[in-house]
Amino acid sequence: MTTYDIAVIGGTGPQGKGLAYRWARHGHRVVLGSRSAERAQEAAEQITARVDGADVTGATNADAAAGADVVVLAVPYDGHDDLVASLAGPLAGKTVISCVNPLGFDKQGPYGLDVPGGSAAETAAALVPDATLVGAFHHVSAPSLWGDAEYLDHEDVLVCGDDQEAKAVAIELARAVTSRDGVDAGRLRIARQLEPWTAVLISINKRYKTRSGTSISGVPRS
Amino acid sequence: MTTYDIAVIGGTGPQGKGLAYRWARHGHRVVLGSRSAERAQEAAEQITARVDGADVTGATNADAAAGADVVVLAVPYDGHDDLVASLAGPLAGKTVISCVNPLGFDKQGPYGLDVPGGSAAETAAALVPDATLVGAFHHVSAPSLWGDAEYLDHEDVLVCGDDQEAKAVAIELARAVTSRDGVDAGRLRIARQLEPWTAVLISINKRYKTRSGTSISGVPRS
Predict the structure, then answer these.
(1) Element (DSSP H or E) covering residue A198
(2) Residue B84 and residue B68: Cα distance in Å, rounded?
(3) Integer Cα distance of B11 and B74 in angstroms
(4) What backbone torsions phi and psi does residue A10 show, to the nearest 5 degrees?
(5) Considering only CA atoms, which of A156, A63, A139, A53 is closest in space to residue A100?
(6) pLDDT over 70, % of chain B
(7) Residues B93-126: tens digit of each pLDDT
(8) Nearest CA among B164, B194, B169, B142 for reference residue B19
(9) Can you tell me the distance from the alpha carbon of A188 to that of B211, in angstroms, rounded to the nearest whole number?
(10) Which residue among A187, A204, A218 sits closest to B154, beta carbon to beta carbon?
(11) What is d(CA A176, CA A169) in angstroms, rounded to the nearest whole number?
């Protein structure tokens, strides 16, 4: 297994903190990023309290991104574009994994927002052309990520992107979450389907009072 | 189990014929609809040749719809709106299940088309306000449906709609395909996510030379 230096932008939110916990638990080095370095450090301490020997620290988003090989965007869609644009310098030249879900909620339930750039991942790619964007980790639920189970082994991580090498990083990082490789779902444009699929899972969760997950059958994997 | 009288509009296409085969195999009465009653009858004979005692016949789309309790729209998206409008009379008052996938293909692979009405299912609902629309059966692959396996038991049928009673029909009809109830994925609007998800599966199929399927974990079912 390759050990990665991962920055999680939005690392104090439930999805970012949950993913960071999974990666730290399985041997990666993680820096949580937040607007406030102090809040990021507090979240890092919640993880180190749970994982013996975890290498997790907190920093501002810009400092976190600057020091990492792989940067994960785990921020709300609201404000996403401005935040990504502000990080264009530290993101340049890096593998950037977006798990951003542009969702709205109304009395009919959750729904996928119209995203002018097609998807959050494509928008980030357009805002930071020197970064290599991958879409992944949209569907794993935050409470499950933060739970005690060794792996979320009934779920799959779907990965999309236009660069095979960058996709391979996300496919490998999925192992720390689900116990197996992520599924290569194709080009970055497929993020237009992956991102709003989260609305389907949230809708199912409401009906069945459960935490649903998506798994893909018929895919041979390590 | 309730035995349904099902009309499959577009019943000579691979998806429609495959679903009809599954329903006939598990005891439902099916009428395949096509523009040509003769071609519909030929497709029906292909099913009766495979299933002892199958109650499957062929008819024009309008005649098939007129005689059924449940009408399944399994037509290409190209021409969908005109066809549905032309069937407004026989569809009125019925449970109508749309498994239409509005997809495009280019050198980047498959993608979800922009549908003016949001989704094919919502468009059909707008065109025939007296019908009760449900979206379901978008993701099961045609070759698997036409295969020999008793059930596609690694896959789930996701069902959406605004009428619980109509959704319950599709949830029950899923049993003939996957061996278990379909998953209630929420309101009809969720068809905006279900329909283009097929692009993700086709994209995965190309990468892995496989027939992928979607299953939903964490949902308690009969």
Answers:
(1) helix A191-208
(2) 16
(3) 7
(4) 80, 35
(5) A139
(6) 100
(7) 999 999 999 999 999 999 999 999 999 999 999 9
(8) B142
(9) 21
(10) A218
(11) 12
